[in-house]
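User: Is it possible to get a 3D structure for a protein together with its bound compound? The compound here is (2Z)-2-iminopentanedioic acid. I've pasted both below.
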Amino acid sequence: MNVDKLMIELERRNPGETEYLQAVRDVLESIEEVYSDHPHFESASIIERLTEPDRILTFKVAWTDDEGRVRVNRGWRIQFNNAIGPYKGGLRFHASVNLSILKSLGFEQIFKNSLTSLPMGGAMGGADFDPKGKSSSEIMRFCQSYMLELWKLIGPETDVPAGDIGVGGREIGYLFGMYKKLSGEHAGVMTGKGLHWGGSLIRPEGGGYGVVYFVRQMLEQAGMELAGKKVAISGFGTMAWGVARKATEMGARVISLSGPDGYVYVQDGLTPAHIDYMLELRISNEDIVKPFSYEFEDAEYRPNRKPWELPCDIAIPCATQNELNEQDAAQLIQNGCLCVCEGANRPCTSEAVHLFQKAGLLFAPGKAANAGGVAASGLEMTQNAMKYSWTREEVDQRLSLIMQNIHASCARYGTREDGYVDYVRGANIAGFLKVAGAMLDQGVV
Ligand code: 2IT
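Assistant: Yes, that's possible. Here is the predicted structure of the complex:
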């Protein structure tokens, strides 16, 4: 495999899609060796086939705001690869959404889902709709209009969307309601559903819990433990909430949260009251963490700054792509950080990742570490198929086991001769081999 040559061709076919091209390059660099070791990958053009999504639906979403004005957004669903199971992945509603970002996320999702060991292909979708400041009725009308197009593409055995940034339980409810109306079926066509209509216990927490289970494994492998560690996190959404809950429960001290306008520093660590308040912030559609400093005396609001300036043992970026750059990485390293684990999808720039690895920090990419979210989705699909619900403990146990297995796969393919585990390389190779093997078995389709 010649990575540069493949990238030139990809750039020609996908001009300007920076995020997507970077996501592909990172995977290609990791798998170069195993690809060349197996000539049948090359002869079956596995890379060329993997980097071209099976299909992309782009559609208009017209809806009426509370003032009676008609608004128009653009919606997408990218069905990337279904070699190992039905297309599976989130929907993101955010002003920044574009085709390149969704393709980068959809591409990553193929490998992430493969790592979970559950039968799920890769997909991603969303809209350039900004939920900030919108009323619940506006959100409902938007979701209904979105589903008017999406429903033709999805199904429990075809494509099973879930949430992502801007799409939580409320939005899944509105989307699912419209799907049910249009299809006439109460089917397991989405995950993240409400508990009383097909949802799974631990799905909302799954992503965050999974990240903490993964960090526990990384530390254990390196002869350390989570209890007593100082943890800086960014974000304030479902992922940050789940991480804060589980890390605190396991005896770590979580000292920050953040929004686009700055971060909140809590010296003694978040308490259950702080963590519960995170849910209120989300429900109010508030995208800044400033209200924490009104609500809690011990929460210090630091506007227009990032939590990566805080001395900490562990950093867990849980906000969005490229939120942690080279300077942030240098600062964390200088402050003696031991471990960086991605809660969000691609929050660390490639330059930041290289710095962490060069400095010998433990670093885990989102496609391995945050796979607990989609793994819990997979467990929701299983329960829907059985028309049964597992208890909280049953789901949590399965999730914990899945995260242990993902860690073991990363270590298996990513451990260097000097003993350092390159989790990026391990995750990419383990995720890739399974999908590539399935594609080979299934012929040219
Ligand atoms: O990034 C992710 O893995 C998700 N947004 C969850 C996807 C899913 O289908 O649960």
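The domain at 3-186 is CATH 3.40.50.10860 (Rossmann fold). The longest helix spans residues 392-414.
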